[in-house]
Amino acid sequence: MAARPGDRPVPAARRSLATPSTTSNGTSSSGPISSGLLINVIRTLTTSVNEDQRELEKKKLEKGYRESGDMVERLIKEHQGDIENCLSTFKDVSSRISVCRERVINVRNALSQCKQILENKRDDLKKLWVESSEQRHIVEIMNKLDDLRNIPIEVEILMDKGAFETAAQTITRAKVEMREVECIEGLCGVRTRLEELKDDLTTKIMMRIVMAVVDEPFEKNMADMLSGIPEDRISSTSELAGLASRLKARVSDEPLVLRINRDVGALEVLDKELRVLERLNHMSAANIEKMIRATISLVRVRNNTDETHPPDHKALGQMIKVIFRQLEASRDAHSSLAERTRQQEVLKAFWRHAQTSVDSVVSEHTGLSSSGLKSTMDQTSRLFRFEGTALSNFVSSSTNNRVICRPDVYNIVPLYPWLKHLISTIEESSGVKPCTLSHFVESVVMKNFITRLNDDFTNRLDTIIKGARSAEALFDGSQKAYEMCSEVLLYQVQHLLVNMEQYAPQLAALWLIVITQYITHVRMIYEKATSHVTVVNGVTMPQKKISAAWAADEDISRLLMSLPNWQLAHASDAILSPMTGVHSEKVQQSIETAELMTNMEDVRRLAIVHESLRCLAAKIRGLLESIPRQIKTTLQAVRHSYERSDGSREEGASLSLIDRHVASVEANSATCLLMLHLELRVHCFYHLLPLARPRGGGGGGGSGDDVDQEVHDLGRDMAAFYKLLSEILAVPKLNYIFDGLGHLCAAIFIHSSQHMPRLTDAGKKRVCRNIWGVQQRLSQLTGRREAQLERARAFYELLSSDVDRIIALVPETSKQFSSMELGLLVGLSVRSHPLLSTQPGALDSYLQLLNNAIRTAR
């Protein structure tokens, strides 16, 4: 390759050193390897002593140099364009660097001139800068004054738009700016206006909060009542129409929490410490009072009631239910407010005001109040008036309508369950037990209510007794006023027990009043119906009827109640078995008419008293079974002291006392039934025993075909008893009274034979006719044959045979008659025989023969 002009020739050795060596396969080795080879060659040349060796290495070196030179030439030829491009670029860059170097020199010279000028004019520039700053500050102050004058208008516009938070920020910013220009005269009016705007904005924000936590929760619950009022009535009443329009307009999808956060945030901008919360609590209290009055007014309109209307438990329950739900909804809103402000005093203040308002409602509807509790807010503590608000249009007329019906202490009944829930909610939320409302309800309202119940129960029962012409008149007719009144009172107590569980012992004691007064009244009727007056040695003495004396005898009553037919008498579908009559020494004595119950009205009253007492006991036991188990447990655990009618006191568990009194009622009822049972049997003795007395014609003088008058009288009495009792008593009890009469009459006929001195043939026929007459009348009443009376007639028919024949028939008759009855038969046959009756020892001889025949037959 030909050398170019200006190019410096490169020595071959140098070219060889600069050219990378190639490997045996024709490829060039890397730089570090060529350098190592060159160092080895140089070391060999410098260290070798042998000239040949150095010459050899020199030749190798030259050869490599030539090869490198050839390679360089070849590469130059291959990259000739790139080399020329690089040289051109190098020249261009070199020219530019020269130009930049000249420009830098020019800038450096200019800067030096500027520095010189600045140094010369520094004082003038400083003076000009100070003057410019002063003018700029004056302009800023003027602009700020213009802005401050416009801020009240801006705030009013923001308040009208409802942008309270922005308005609060604007006022706060303006107050900060006012402090910066407070030395300027003429801004007092602006400062005063800003303070007024701050107060107005604070009031409006608090009113929005009160509306969110009080008005809206209350009115949402009022909407349910409003929906039940016809549209024409709503439109005809301005108050209802206003409420309806507000409810329709107050439709917002924005959550309550966000609204509270925004409004409280606006308050915090105006007052970081939220010192206005006390004012907010007073505003909330005033609105709670007004909303409750508005609710009462709405209930009045819905139910068409007023303060002269009788107590309406349905309307009262509706009112207190709505108020309870309103307070719960408002409580939730106040909880959100307390959480946002981080001050639990907000919730505590709400419950204080709620209790005050509810206390007032309860006081006005029950007619009771507590001197230690305020039922209305102190007017001096009301910092705000709401006559101009939308709410005032509705509540203005309701402030005079404070009750929905006539005040009465009984109004606490529908109010108490909801008051109990409210008290529990308040105590759980506030942690104060008992709360103020609980103290008022328990110590004032319920105390007076229980006292009033005691007085009313006693007075109502006494009024019925005193209003009747006589004690018996209370049980005349199918409608028994006293019984109906007692039933109403019993169910009233049961209703109160379920709804006022806390006062179960005091309420259960009212049952004792009903029971004791009822028993006292019934005993008066019983004593009059079962007593008669006798004169002994010129002294008038009251005595009991025979049946009453037997029923009062513990042995007789216990015996009768132990028999199977007594238990069957209380079964609805019982078939009673015959009963053996009661035997008494009276059988052998004459019975006076005064000892009988001959007045059927007395019998009717005894039957009614029995049923009334039974129903009373059954109702009380049913009511005791129906009350919840926890109330029974309370009644069993609490002891009660009760004063009896005689002045003595009875103590014990409430449930045990009631059970003992109910058992007493059941015992009195059982006594009445026993007496009716025994009275009819005394009538049997009274009418049939005289038939055994000697009569004209040798003890059997009557020859007519009719029965004796005593049999007619007995039949008349039994028919009167049956007709009267069948209208009052159930069939099992009627059967209890009449079953066994045939057996008793047969026994009377048979055993009265021992009192007959003799019996003629006509007398035998008369006795058989009397037995048949009794059997016929009794069968007509009971619908049965009364086979026992057939046995008595067979007893007297045997007298048609002589004594020897009677003894001969003992093997057959001993199955029908007892040994004693056969002895009576033989004795009467001997006394009636014309010859044997005059023979001494004849009766004893035949009785001995009878005993031998009986032993042989058995």
From TrEMBL:
Under the heading InterPro entries, the entry gives:
Sec8/EXOC4 (IPR039682), Sec8_exocyst_N (IPR007191)
Pfam families the record matches: Sec8_N
Q: What ranges does the record list as Low complexity composition bias?
A: 19-32
**Similarity-based family:** Belongs to the SEC8 family.
Name under which the protein is recorded = Exocyst complex component Sec8
What job does this protein perform?
Component of the exocyst complex involved in the docking of exocytic vesicles with fusion sites on the plasma membrane.
**Signal sequence: where?**
none
Q: Does the keyword Metal-binding apply?
A: no
Organism listed in the record: Pristionchus mayeri
Region of interest: Disordered = 1-32
PANTHER family found in the cross-reference section: EXOCYST COMPLEX COMPONENT 4 (PTHR14146)
Query: Any idea where the Exocyst complex component Sec8 N-terminal domain is?
Result: 61-156
What are the entry keywords? Answer: Exocytosis, Protein transport, Transport
Presence of the UniProt keyword Protein transport in the record? yes
Instruction: Look up the record and report any one GO term of the cellular component aspect.
Output: exocyst
What GO biological process term is on the record, naming one?
A: vesicle tethering involved in exocytosis
Question: Domain of life, per the record?
Answer: Eukaryota
